[in-house]
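Hi team,

Below is the intake form for Nuclear transport factor 2 family protein from Flavobacterium zepuense. Please confirm the fields before the structure is written into the shared record.

FORM ID: S-0412
PROTEIN: Nuclear transport factor 2 family protein
ORGANISM: Flavobacterium zepuense
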Amino acid sequence: MKAIKLNMIAILFAATGITANAQTPEDNKKIISAGFERWAKGEGSFFDLLTDDVQWTINGSAPLSKTYNGKQQFLNEVINPLNERLSQKIVPTVRSLYAEGDTVIALIDGKATAKDGKSYNMSYAWFMQMKDGKIVHVDAFLDGIQFADIFKRIRAGN
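The structure came back. Fields below:
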């Protein structure tokens, strides 16, 4: 009888997609919050939370708006080129975090200084899908005009 009950529980978990590594919304929110705290303190990269095969979509009509398939593509085509244009890296301030199911939504402000001395102040909304404590998919929203402007205004490596 005990074996039947255990088998039924295993079937229920399999049918609902729940695994032993499943995170609660609160767990996911804490992971994301800790990632932003480390980033704000300059301790490592928030993007360490991404899986290697993450899909990161920048929504909108800016030149960099598209889906990036994989962490390396996203870093190589967006994050690294952006950082090359900054004299001071972005420091994030989290306005709010929401978690439901496997999704964490972050509303954040990022402040930095561009290499031409102008401020780079951006607000972001990131909808992050989590799996086993890592980010597997992101839908990102930002000011596409300002984002494109820093790429147009400052050449990489200058």
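SUMMARY LINE: Residues 5-20 have pLDDT under 50 and may be disordered.

Thanks, M.
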